[in-house]
Design brief:
Blueprint: E1 2-7, E2 13-18, E3 43-46, E4 53-56, E5 92-96, E6 108-113, H1 127-145, E7 152-159, E8 171-177, H2 182-198, H3 202-213, E9 217-220, E10 224-227, E11 236-242, H4 254-273, E12 283-288, E13 302-307, E14 309-311, E15 314-315, H5 320-325, H6 334-343
Antiparallel strand pairs: 1-2, 2-5, 3-4, 5-6, 6-8, 7-8, 7-12, 9-10, 10-11, 11-13, 12-13, 14-15
Length: 347
């Protein structure tokens, strides 16, 4: 893998990731951008009742919103139209978000573009490109984790207008949080209590139980298993675990790293076949990585993939019980969801 780092016109960093060494990527950004416009007014406030950290980022109200395809800021630049990516072509590109929720002392937000092709999706990538994306996620996790003040790195993809995506180009995001996220904090507390009570690791026991039961297993390889969790919150929700527990992407072994692209692409393709529709299935794909500091020794890297679609023509909305009380009500039995995801396996 070759990584090329350069700067955009307003001083933000952009990195190109390539499978070979031959590509020239250090193209200048010709846009008349003001460096001061990249400054943010984000602040982190703590909820006194829940103890959760909340980011206030009012400057993001003016961010780019559903531009036409010929004005996409994530496509390569062309003659007469400069985008966020100055190069006329790329494989995988990562750059600092122009409208970040977190920046400076409050962390960092990056955009990762999986392909220059506006019309495709992650599921349509080949395994070599998916492996390069994994290498970029790993590289960014390692570099951001080493920065002062960063407590947790989160790589994720939102896809589909139903999810709230405002740019149609295939891309994801990488957040470097200055705090441990509420979801991870709850996981760490549960896992720590289990260790005290039983002496065992809860992540390992959950994976072993799912592999032994099999009714919720979606697919399994030599180094990864994907399953619908026993208490799934979403109609179609899959958790993907490496068999050897590691805290984060940089710690992933070579064999698991090599097998991941095929397993992950198959999962995404099954999601697209779930409902018999021609349009892509909306989803969120989220890497859960150990925070920096306490709890790393018991944490397990895993990926969660879920869709808000519950039938071909119905969406799952977070209504009063979920949004108001975080008490989830699932319309699809997890065992039935797993069976359906097995049915739509690739030929």
């Amino acid at each position: 893998m070759k990584r090329t780092s350069t700067r955009l016109a307003d001083g933000r960093e952009i990195l190109y990731y390539d499978t070979g060494d031959g590509a020239a990527r250090a193209f200048p950004d010709t846009r008349p951008l003001d460096a001061s416009a990249a400054a943010t007014t984000s602040e982190v406030r703590r909820d006194p009742l829940l103890g959760d950290s909340v980011v206030i980022a009012s400057h993001r109200q003016g961010r780019t919103y559903h531009p036409p395809a010929d004005a996409c800021p994530l496509c390569p630049s062309t003659e007469g139209r400069a985008s966020e990516i100055p190069a006329p072509d790329y494989e995988v590109a990562v750059f600092e978000n122009r409208f970040p929720s977190l920046a400076g002392d409050t962390g960092r937000c990056e955009v990762i573009c999986f392909t220059p092709d506006h019309r495709t999706s992650f599921a349509q990538l080949d395994e070599e490109r998916a492996a390069l994306v994994l290498a970029a996620w790993t590289d960014r996790t390692a570099e951001l984790s080493a920065r002062d003040g960063v407590r947790q790195v989160y790589c994720f993809e939102n896809r589909g207008t139903e999810i709230g995506v405002t740019l149609a180009h295939p891309h994801g995001q990488i957040y470097a949080f200055p705090f441990v996220t509420p979801r991870t904090t709850r996981m760490l507390a549960t896992v720590a209590a289990h260790r005290v009570r039983t002496g065992g690791n809860l992540f390992e026991e959950v994976l072993a139980a799912e592999r032994a039961d099999g009714s919720r297993t979606v697919l399994a390889g030599e180094h990864w298993t994907a399953f619908v969790p026993y208490a799934a919150r979403w109609p179609y929700e899959v958790h993907l675990y490496p068999h050897h527990r590691v805290p984060d992407l940089p710690a992933l072994g070579d064999a698991a790293r090599a097998e991941f692209p095929g397993i992950y692409l198959e999962l995404l393709r099954r999601f697209d076949r779930l409902f018999g529709r021609t349009d892509p299935t909306p989803y969120i794909s989220a890497w859960h990585q150990a925070p920096l500091g306490g709890g790393r020794e018991d944490f397990a890297l895993h990926l969660e993939l879920f869709t808000v679609r519950r039938t071909a023509d119905k969406l799952k909305y977070l209504a009063g019980t979920e949004s108001g009380m975080e008490a989830y009500m699932n319309d699809v039995r997890p065992e039935d969801a797993a069976a359906r995801l097995r049915e739509v396996a690739s030929p």
